[in-house]
């Protein structure tokens, strides 16, 4: 059984799904952020798979950018979480409901 | 043969790590599981001959981002305080279930029913030839994607400034009116 | 010179605007002189344009001046334009001429009134509207003027608005006219949908419509004319309109506005079908008789003249219905002269008697008000049809046309004859009651002659009323000036077919009927030989109770129906709209829980939505 592109795509999809389910289930904001990272990783894997299948380096370039942006996002996200949890230690994602309509 | 084994092993590592992230009670455990997933993904990158990306993945993701996570976890002391307690909101459980099963079904359908899941076409990047991966990536980055590159550097600066501003301790309130 | 036609309505409009802005500052009497000057200049320009028209020959006497495209909508192009042709210039001339005289008269009559300048403001606006009506080159401009004169009529009738009866009378006039306006509008719609144009020159050249449509249009136009020109059943506003100042009664309700219905029908003579013409003739004759009967028993000096106006208008429609359009226009002109004269004369009497209007309190005024009496008598002779005054010639032509009407000619002629008798009777009655006999007024009232501003117009009009017959003498064919002048207007010119003998016999009978009427009046009112009671039954005085019936029906059943409709509107129509608003709010309230404020709920939205989108794309692609 040779490894075709589909295998990598399935793996990427699975990572994405697991990350998504985790995002919906967990309440701890740090863990939610980690689940987002999981999803991004799944996507990265798919991009690289496609890049190889199509013979285009563009896919890998995109992964490069995703990495950079993910880093920036984590930085800002963690800053936010620090700011929130400093005011109300022990709060979860459900406690941030000021925008209730 | 070797490819298959490498793939399967790396896949197991990835999935175990992923499940660990979402199921672990202790956030520190989640972070460590994340590291495991990241390593697995790096191995996958290597097996697809994206060497540079594998290296960057380990250095940036596993080396910097997860470390940052651990810093914050330790700083805020959430390691012992949290428990799993899957969502008080009742809709969340069912939504997660729907999403999970739906996505799995969709993925399965695509894999089984669709002949070739790769339906795209080569884009801007430039063809992959015998040149080294790093050189190819660099060439593409600094010619076709140079604007995006510059913008991401700007983005990084903004992120740094933003994080500094956000995480500052609030300024001490001046004792102005009486009783405030 | 005919290009100056746009000046004719513009001058009164300028007068109106000037008075609107600076009228109260000008005060009495400068405001009055300004308005009169505007009117007089308009008359001069009208005369100049008329001369310009005369220099052209026969068929070339039609000049259109378009100022701008007013309503270009789809295939309909309504222009703001004027049409100079014999009919419009005839109307414009006597409207401005009589109008100027009445403006002059009002300077004297309205002396001392606190709203002096406002009166002239309204008069100028009225003159402008009337001129737009007659000078317009299409039905829409005429309608503009039509509505304008209706509005001014309302404003002028309720001029002394603090008086309840005056305010009510103004409303009544406006509402009744509205019924006519409805007819006008529907006629315009029908006309456009079948012919495709509303411009007079194009209508005159269009091919005839289907009989049903043509009759419908004609009858609807007649409804409009009946509203404006006070025919049965829409005449009820005219007697009440006497609440307005007497110059208004003279100008609006004798000489000009009420003739716009006649003008409209004559202008649209091309589309009137013979069936509709019969209806018009019958209604005109019936109105003439009915109003004459009502006039017989009136006590108020102005009400007699009001019913007389209705009756004479009936004559005009009788003429139109018999196909003799020239006779109708001729009578319009002579009627304008002698009716304005009579009204202004009665105004002079009222003014001299210090606002007394009941004829039972007058009498023997001819020595105290000689000029008024003299001119009034000339007007009386004219309306009674005594030759050689103008009324005889025009009325005689109408009666001849009625006699020659192919279907029911003789009946119409008899009705017209009886009406002529009654006309002579009640006018003589009025003259004898007011100017002859014994003085019956209360002590302390000192009647006096009116100032020159009032008596000069009286004299001018008396001359016109006496000599007006010269316009269209049937003695020699060449002397039929009016008929020859108006000939290009008509698509089927009317020719009298009776022999000269018949004409002379009919004329003699008409004159005799007039003398009989005068004789009876003399016997009753001058010589007091016959008792008057039996000649003035209450039925006649209340105009056959038609007006009272209207009030009962509209006020009783009508009121209930209107209230029902109003409530239904509030409940259903307004309710439906409110329900839409309420349901929007309810929808919003239902959607509110979606905004829970919880981040994870929003995450659900994103993920499930994304999944759904993906499924849709995959399903669409495969």
Keywords:
heterotrimer; A: 101 residues; mainly alpha; Helix Hairpins; B: 180 residues; Four Helix Bundle (Hemerythrin (Met), subunit A); 6 helices; 69% helix; globular
Describe this structure in words.
- The complex is a heterotrimer of chains A (101), B (180) and C (622).
- Chain A is mainly α.
- Chain A has a single domain (5-92), classed as Helix Hairpins.
- Chain A has helices at residues 5-25, 29-54, 58-87.
- The radius of gyration of chain A is 17 Å and the shape is elongated.
- The termini of chain A are far apart.
- The model of chain A has no long low-confidence stretch (mean pLDDT 88).
- In chain B, α1 (2-23) packs antiparallel against α2 (27-47) and α2 runs antiparallel to α3 (51-76).
- Chain B has 180 residues and is mostly helical.
- The radius of gyration of chain B is 22 Å and the shape is globular.
- Chain B has helices spanning 2-23, 27-47, 51-76, 90-113, 133-143, 146-166.
- With 622 residues, chain C is mainly α.
- In chain C, α2 packs antiparallel against α3 and α13 (301-321) packs antiparallel against α14 (325-352).
- Chain C is globular, with a radius of gyration of 29 Å.
- Chains A and B meet through α1, α2 and α3 of A and α1, α2, α3, α4 and α5 of B.
Q: What percent of the residues of chain A sit in helical stretches (DSSP H or I)?
A: over 70%
How large a portion of the residues of chain B is in β-strands, by DSSP E?
Answer: under 5%
CATH topology call of chain A: Helix Hairpins
Which two chains form the greatest contact, residue counts included?
Answer: A-B, 73 and 89 residues
- Secondary-structure class of chain A: mainly alpha
At the fold tier of CATH, the topology name of the domain at 1-83 in chain B is Four Helix Bundle (Hemerythrin (Met), subunit A)
Order of helices and strands of chain A: HHH
SSE layout:
The complex is a heterotrimer of chains A (101), B (180) and C (622).
Chain A: H1 5-25, H2 29-54, H3 58-87
Helix pairs in contact in A: 1-2, 2-3
Chain B: H1 2-23, H2 27-47, H3 51-76, H4 90-113, H5 133-143, H6 146-166
Helix pairs in contact in B: 1-2, 2-3
Chain C: H1 7-26, H2 30-54, E1 63-73, E2 76-84, H3 86-109, H4 116-135, H5 139-157, H6 164-194, H7 200-204, H8 211-228, H9 237-240, H10 246-255, H11 260-267, H12 274-296, H13 301-321, H14 325-352, H15 370-384, H16 390-403, H17 409-435, H18 452-467, H19 481-486, H20 500-526, H21 538-541, H22 546-591, H23 599-621
Antiparallel strand pairs in C: 1-2
């Amino acid at each position: 059984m040779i490894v075709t592109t589909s295998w990598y795509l399935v793996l990427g999809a699975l990572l994405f799904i697991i990350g998504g389910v985790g995002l919906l289930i967990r309440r701890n904001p740090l863990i939610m952020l980690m689940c987002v990272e999981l999803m991004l990783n799944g996507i990265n894997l798919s991009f690289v798979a496609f890049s190889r299948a199509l013979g285009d380096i563009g896919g890998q370039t995109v992964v490069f950018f995703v990495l950079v942006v993910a880093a920036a996002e984590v930085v800002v996200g963690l800053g936010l979480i620090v700011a929130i949890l400093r005011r109300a230690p022990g709060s979860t994602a459900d406690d941030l409901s000021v925008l209730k309509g | 043969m070797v490819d298959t084994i490498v793939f399967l092993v790396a896949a197991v590592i990835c999935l175990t790590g992923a499940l660990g992230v979402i199921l672990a009670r202790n956030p520190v455990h989640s972070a460590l599981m994340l590291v495991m997933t990241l390593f697995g993904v790096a191995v996958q990158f290597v097996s697809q001959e994206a060497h540079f990306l594998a290296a960057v993945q380990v250095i940036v993701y596993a080396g910097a981002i997860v470390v940052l996570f651990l810093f914050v976890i330790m700083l805020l002391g959430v390691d012992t305080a949290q428990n799993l307690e899957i969502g008080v909101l009742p809709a969340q459980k069912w939504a997660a279930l729907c999403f999970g099963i739906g996505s799995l079904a969709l993925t399965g359908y695509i894999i089984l029913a669709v002949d070739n899941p790769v339906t795209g076409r080569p884009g801007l990047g430039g063809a992959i030839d015998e040149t080294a991966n790093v050189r190819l990536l660099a060439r593409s980055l600094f010619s076709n994607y140079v604007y995006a590159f510059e913008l991401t550097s700007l983005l990084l600066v903004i992120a740094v400034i933003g994080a500094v501003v956000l995480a500052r301790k609030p300024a001490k309130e001046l004792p102005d009116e009486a009783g405030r | 010179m005919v290009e100056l036609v746009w000046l004719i309505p513009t001058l009164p409009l300028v007068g109106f605007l000037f008075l609107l802005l600076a009228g109260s500052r000008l005060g009495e009497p400068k405001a009055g002189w300004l308005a009169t000057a505007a009117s007089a200049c308009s008359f001069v320009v009208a005369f100049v344009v008329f001369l310009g028209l005369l220099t052209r020959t026969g068929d070339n006497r039609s000049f259109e001046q378009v100022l701008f495209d007013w309503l270009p909508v789809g295939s309909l192009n309504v222009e703001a334009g004027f049409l100079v042709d014999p009919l419009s210039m005839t109307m414009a001339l006597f409207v401005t001429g009589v109008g100027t005289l009445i403006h002059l008269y009002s300077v004297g009559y309205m002396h001392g009134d606190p709203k002096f300048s406002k009166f002239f403001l309204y008069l100028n606006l009225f003159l402008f509207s009337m001129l737009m009506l007659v000078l317009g080159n299409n039905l829409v401009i005429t309608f503009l003027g039509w509505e304008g004169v209706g509005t001014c009529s309302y404003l002028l009738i309720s001029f002394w608005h603090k008086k309840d009866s005056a305010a009510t009378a103004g409303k009544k006039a406006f509402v009744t006219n509205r019924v006519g306006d409805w007819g006008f509008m529907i006629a315009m719609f029908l006309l456009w949908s079948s012919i495709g144009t509303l411009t007079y020159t194009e209508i005159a050249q269009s091919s005839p419509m289907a009989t049903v449509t043509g009759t419908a249009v004609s009858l609807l136009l007649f409804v409009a004319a009946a509203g404006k020109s006070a025919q049965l059943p829409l005449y009820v506003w005219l007697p009440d309109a006497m609440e307005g100042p007497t110059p208004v009664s003279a100008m609006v309700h004798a000489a000009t506005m009420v003739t716009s219905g006649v003008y409209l029908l004559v202008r649209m003579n091309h589309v009137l079908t013979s069936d509709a013409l019969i209806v018009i003739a019958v209604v005109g004759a019936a109105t003439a008789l009915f109003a004459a009967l009502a006039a017989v028993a009136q006590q108020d000096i102005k009400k007699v003249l009001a019913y007389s106006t209705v009756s004479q208008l009936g004559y005009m429609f009788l003429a139109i219905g018999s196909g003799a359009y020239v006779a109708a226009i001729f009578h319009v002109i002579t009627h304008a002269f002698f009716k304005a004269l009579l009204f202004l004369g009665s105004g002079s009497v009222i003014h001299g008697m210090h606002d007394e209007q009941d004829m039972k309190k007058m009498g023997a005024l001819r020595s105290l008000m000689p000029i008024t009496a003299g001119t009034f008598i000339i007007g009386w002779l004219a309306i009674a049809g005594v030759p050689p005054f103008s009324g005889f010639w025009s009325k005689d032509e109408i009666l001849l046309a009625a006699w020659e009407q192919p279907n029911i000619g003789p009946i119409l002629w008899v009705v017209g004859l009886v009406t002529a008798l009654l006309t002579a009777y009640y006018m003589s009655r009025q003259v004898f009651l007011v100017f002859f006999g014994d003085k019956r007024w209360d002590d302390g009232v000192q009647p006096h002659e009116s100032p020159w501003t009032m008596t000069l117009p009286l004299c001018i009009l008396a001359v016109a009323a006496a000599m007006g017959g010269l316009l269209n003498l049937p003695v020699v064919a060449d002397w039929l000036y009016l008929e020859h002048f108006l000939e290009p207007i008509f698509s089927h010119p009317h020719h009298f077919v009776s022999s000269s003998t018949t004409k002379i016999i009919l004329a003699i009978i008409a004159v005799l009927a007039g003398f009989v009427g005068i004789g009876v009046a003399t016997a009753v009112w001058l010589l007091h030989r016959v008792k008057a009671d039996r000649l003035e039954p209450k039925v006649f005085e209340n105009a056959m109770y038609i007006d009272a019936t209207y009030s009962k029906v509209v006020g009783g059943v009508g009121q209930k129906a209107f209230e029902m409709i109003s409530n239904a509107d509030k409940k259903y129509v307004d309710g439906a709209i409110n329900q839409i608003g309420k349901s929007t709010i309810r929808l919003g309230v239902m959607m509110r829980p979606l905004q829970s404020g919880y981040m994870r709920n929003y995450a659900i939205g994103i993920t499930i939505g994304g999944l759904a989108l993906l499924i849709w794309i995959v399903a669409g692609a495969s």
